[in-house]
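Hi Y.,

Following your request, here is the sequence exactly as I used it, all 302 residues.
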Amino acid sequence: MSVRPVLETRNATPHLEGAGVHLHRAFGFQDPSELDPFLLFDDFRNEDPNQFEKGFPWHPHRGIETITYVLNGEVDHGDSLGNTGTLGAGDVQWMTAGSGILHQEMPRGNAKGQMHGFQLWANLPSSLKMTAPRYQDVEGKDIPEIIDDDGTRVKVIVGAFWGKSGPVDGIAADPQYLDIYVPPGVTKTLPVDTYRRAFAYVFEGAGQFVDASQPEGVLLEKEIAGREVHMRDMSGNRTLVRFGTGDSVTVQAGPEGVRFLLISGAPIQEPVAWHGPIVMNTQAELQQAFSDLRRGTFIQPV
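Below is the corresponding structure, written out as C-alpha cells. Let me know if you'd prefer a different format.
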C-alpha cells in the first residue's frame, strides 16, 4: 500500500454565519480545486446557546449538496418543498440542492446547552446542477459501526468500508464519509481509493499521521514531517489534515486516543463560479440564479 503524503495541516478559523452562529471553518471560499469535489467544511461546536440558537434562517442553495452530521444537540430544518424535521445526536442529512431550494436550519443545545455538528458542501457536476432537489435524512441508529479487534471504531456514513456500506447513496461526488476513533497508542492503516481527494478533520484527542516518505507504520519524530495533530477538549483547536495521492493513510493515536472524520471524493474538475450558497460553472449561470431569486422563479415546479 502507498501511504498518502500529508500536504498540509491547518486549524479551523472562527467565523460568524447565519443570524449569528459562531463556528469554525476548516476550508471554504478559497481555491475550489484544492479539495475538489468539496467546497466548504464547517464545525459548529459551542456550549453557549446565545452563540448558535439564532441559527440559519431561510436561505437559498443551487448547484451543490450539503451534508449535515450532528454529534450533540438538535437541528430543526424546513424547506420550500414543505419538508420539515429534526436531526438529533448521531443523525445525518444529505441535501441535494440541485436546481434550487430555500431552507432553514435552527440548532438547539442538548440538556447541558451543548451543540456540536459539522456541515460539508460537495459540488455538483454541470450535468446535475439543475437536477431536482431531494433529501436523505438518516437516523444515527441506521449508520453501521465497525469495531476492529484493536478497538478502532468506524462509523460508515457514506460509501463502503471494511465490508459495510453507509445508508446515504446516489451522491454525485462518489464520496466516502467516515467517523473514526483509534484507541490510545494504536497505529492504524486505513484504505482510501487512489482516485479520490482526501482529508481528515481531527476533533478529539491527538494523533500523528505518517508521511509518505517513510515506510508504512514508521512515525516521524519531527513535528513538521510527522504532522502531529493535537486536539484537546470542546474548547481545543480543530485541525484539518489534507492528503496527497496514495491508497491509504496511517495514523497513530496519542495517549487519549484520536477521533476524526476521514472524507474523500472523486474530483469533478470543472470550472466553478461561486457566490455564497450558490455554485455554478459560469458567471452567466451565477447571474441567472440571482436573477431567478429576485424574480421569484428560483424554485422550479415539482
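The CA atoms of residues 94 and 226 lie 34 Å apart.

Thanks again,
Q.
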